[in-house]
């Protein structure tokens, strides 16, 4: 889950400055996203060509393992290797039994992972500095018939239908939160044939959705240009009428 660039690098910040609470909160947010909106990633797997199941799967920017766990469950014969640059994420991933590779994707695709059948990059590609290099490396590393799947949040998660939240999300978008390009031309440039899919998922209210909302919504109080902090605080102080929705864009590249 990404809160845009101010948030995207919070893990780097944690690593550099020992901001353990912020890092722990970031990891909890990733897990809550999986708990509340995980079905959407399941739908992404359903988009994959149903030919031969992949045997070598690589999860780029694996975070706390949302994608890795899903892929291990859906492709039980596959080896799932989780790649991340954040040692704290790697620790979480190794604890879940994944093969882990510590790598900075700004330096390209890890050379030891040649021959992958499925490379998965969820909410991670927009963090990478040299995307053309990484995409060229991935294309070269894929086994014949291999697939690269890129997933991004197409919009910030919605928790309520309250207009104040709407305006807070608009202000956050304007402030560059969750900014990512349309990856289609980038993928084509790297030689891939690309299909893009846009997924919208509404889920019922739940305790996890409430925890996610109460962790997420206060972040908008600090968005530059958002001048309705008292109204947002009033929303948070009341009973949240949850109507959670996630929107993701998916690129399936071959
Ligand atoms: C927003 S999280 C997404 C995690 C996971 N893919 C998910 O869908 O929940 C982005 C992840 O990418 C990792 N990341 C960011 N920049 C990276 C880089 N240059 N090299 C390797 N990993 C990176 C972060 O450490 C973080 O775990």
How do you describe this structure in short?
This protein is α/β, with parallel strands linked by helices and 254 residues long. The protein has helices at 5-8, 10-17, 20-46, 66-74, 87-95, 131-141, 163-174, 184-189, 207-216, 229-237; strands at residues 56-60, 79-84, 99-102, 116-122, 142-153, 158-160, 194-202, 242-253. Residues 58-148 form the Methyltransferase type domain.
Description of the structure:
It contains ten helices and eight strands. The protein is an alpha/beta fold and 254 residues long. Strands 1, 2, 3, 4, 5, 6, 7 and 8 form an eight-stranded mixed sheet that branches. Strand 2, helix 5 and strand 3 form a beta-alpha-beta unit. Helix 2 packs antiparallel against helix 3. 41% of the residues lie in helices and 23% in strands. S-adenosylmethionine is lined by residues 1-2, 11, 30, 61-63, 66-67, 84-86, 89, 104-106, 122-124, 127-128. Residues 58-148 form the Methyltransferase type domain. This is Class I SAM-dependent methyltransferase. It comes from Kineococcus endophyticus.
